[in-house]
Amino acid sequence: MPKKVDHSKRRLSIAKAAFEVIARDGIGAATISAVANEAKISAPLLKHYIKSKDQLLMEAYVYLMSLVLERMAAAETSYKGKEALRRALFVAIPFDKKTKDMYRVGMAFGEMAIQNTTVRKMVDRGTREAKAHFVSVIEEAKELGEAPKNIDAEMTAWGAMLLIVGFGADIVCSGRKITLADKQNHIDHWISKMLA
After folding, report:
1. Diameter of the chain by CA atoms?
2. 36, containing H or E segment
3. What is the pLDDT of residue 53?
4. CB 96 within 8 A of CB 193
5. Is 187 exposed, middle or buried (0-12, 13-18, 19+ CB in 10 A)?
6. How far apart are CA 40 and CA 148, in angstroms?
């Protein structure tokens, strides 16, 4: 009797493998054979699921965004308003290997988006989804009386995105070490200025 294969689980393992290759070796190294090797499957089997390198890269980006949004949603589920914003910013700014890998992959796609319209649209959609999470918690902070009623949640959310992208790029590109306390202090300072 043939072995039953969970195809969605197999696709997820391929996307994760592509993410890992890009994080470790760069986007140019994410070939069908390299990702198949990382996923511990044959290249022909990978091609059964993924028809092109472009599709492989798209799957890696979707995986990246699922990690980002999952982390943000966890902060929003456990906390409300200003504290949810603080927690979402905290998990988004890289500190450990996983978040640094997420930034490396995100930056690789950002660079690719400059030349590729399809990737640009995909990155824009992911950015807007992440920003929507920030808008939601900022609006909630307003409703809870933790932020001024007249604050522009959209503009403040873009500010949150710029904070994490700028901070992340600096940490990943420079190799700068940051303590958890420094990270929290930067976030608290930004929140105190933006939600004052």
Report:
1. 66
2. helix 32-39
3. 87
4. no
5. buried
6. 53
Give the separation between CA 41 and CA 108, rounded to whole angstroms.
Answer: 25
The domains located in the chain, with CATH, are 57-194 (1.10.357.10)
Q: Please state at what angle helix 153-174 crosses helix 180-194, rounded to 10 degrees.
A: 160
**Closest to 76 measured CA to CA, from 134, 152, 143, 159:** 134
What's the pLDDT at 1?
A: 58
The pTM is what?
A: 0.84
Per-residue pLDDT at 25:
95
Query: Chunked in runs of 10, what are the mean pLDDT values of the chain (196 residues)?
Result: 76 95 94 95 92 90 91 86 93 88 92 92 92 94 95 96 91 87 93 90
| Cα radius of gyration (the chain) | 19
What one-letter code names the amino acid at 52?
A: S
d(CA 145, CA 129): 25
